[in-house]
UniProtKB/TrEMBL annotation:
One of its GO terms (biological process) is DNA recombination. It is found in: Cytoplasm. It comes from Paraburkholderia domus. Residues 29-244 form the Tyr recombinase domain. Keywords: DNA integration, DNA recombination. This is Tyrosine recombinase XerC. GO terms for cellular component: cytoplasm. GO terms for molecular function: DNA binding. It comes from the Bacteria. InterPro entries: DNA_brk_join_enz (IPR011010), Integrase-like_cat_sf (IPR013762), Integrase_catalytic (IPR002104), Tyrosine_recombinase_XerCD (IPR050090).
C-alpha cells in the first residue's frame, strides 16, 4: 500500500523500506578463492605439464588458455562454453590506441565487456596457432573459446570444461602433498577448488592490487549496465588500462 502511495505521489517515501534496510545482513567475505601463493602453485603445475607429443602440447595449450580466460576474464564456466572467439573485437580509444575487448553473453542473457588485455590476446594467439588457426579471430567467427583435442570445432560441454579444471587442481594438490605433510592443508584447499574459485580469485586479486572496485564490478558483471554507461567510453578506456597494467597472469 505504501509503495502504491509513493507511486501515486501522495507520499515522498516508503517508511516500511527503512525497516527492511535495517533487517539486511552484511554478506560474508568471499572465502572460496586462491591466495596468490596457491595460484602460483597452480600456474607452476600447468607450466610443468608434459609436452612431448602433439596431443600433450595441444592439451597444455588448451589448459593454459582456459585458465587465462577464467582468471584474466573472470568468465563463468558456462560462459566459456557458450561464447565464441568472434566476440573479440577491437576499438580505438581516446588516445588513438586500438584496444581489444571480449563481449560476453553471460548469466541471465546479460552482456558485458571484458577487457582483453595484451596478455590475454597473446595467449589467444598462441592457442589459435597451436590449433592451426590465424593468430587473431575474425569478426563473428563461430569458433568456440575452448576446443576439444583433435580436429573437432564443436564447443566443449560445461561438464567437460569443469573436468579439465578439476584435473588441474587435483594435480597441483598432489604435487603439494608430495612435498611433505606441512603442505597438506593447502593441498586440501586446492583439492576443493572449482572453476568459480578462479572468478573469485580474479576479483580478490584485483582488489588487492587496489584496482577501483567499480571496475572490478564491471569486469565481473556483478551489476547490469545501464543505458547511460554505453556512452562512458572514457571510463571503459580507464578500466581497460588499469586492468592491463595491474591485473596480470605472468605465466
Amino acid at each position: 500500500m505504501f509503495a502504491w502511495l509513493v507511486q501515486a505521489g501522495y507520499l515522498a517515501g516508503n517508511p516500511l523500506s527503512l525497516s527492511r534496510q535495517r533487517a539486511r545482513r552484511a554478506k560474508p567475505r568471499i572465502t572460496r578463492y586462491l591466495s596468490p601463493e596457491l595460484w602460483l602453485e597452480v600456474k607452476t603445475w600447468i607450466h610443468a605439464m608434459p609436452k612431448e607429443t602433439d596431443r600433450e602440447r595441444e592439451h597444455y595449450a588448451r589448459v593454459r588458455w582456459l585458465f587465462t580466460l577464467l582468471y584474466l576474464g573472470g568468465l563463468r564456466i558456462t560462459e566459456v562454453g557458450e561464447n565464441t572467439m568472434g566476440r573479440f573485437f577491437r576499438r580505438r580509444d581516446a588516445n588513438g590506441e586500438d584496444r581489444w575487448w571480449l563481449e560476453v553473453l553471460g548469466k541471465g542473457g546479460k552482456e558485458r565487456l571484458v577487457p582483453a588485455t595484451s596478455e590475454m590476446m597473446a595467449e589467444l594467439s598462441a592457442y589459435r596457432r597451436e590449433r592451426g588457426l590465424p593468430a587473431l579471430p575474425s569478426q563473428d567467427e563461430d569458433t568456440p573459446l575452448v576446443l576439444p583435442i583433435g580436429q573437432s570445432l564443436k564447443p566443449l560441454t560445461r561438464a567437460a570444461l569443469h573436468r579439465i579444471v578439476k584435473q588441474v587442481f587435483s594435480g597441483a594438490a598432489d604435487a603439494l602433498r608430495d612435498r611433505g605433510e606441512t603442505h597438506a592443508p593447502r593441498a586440501d584447499q586446492l583439492q576443493q577448488a572449482s572453476a568459480h574459485w578462479m572468478r573469485h580469485s580474479e576479483g580478490s586479486h584485483m582488489a588487492d592490487q587496489q584496482v577501483d572496485l567499480r571496475l572490478v564490478r564491471d569486469n565481473l558483471g556483478h551489476a547490469s549496465l545501464t543505458t547511460t554507461s554505453q556512452y562512458l567510453h572514457d571510463d571503459d578506456d580507464r578500466r581497460h588500462r588499469e586492468t592491463d597494467e595491474k591485473h596480470r597472469i605472468d605465466w
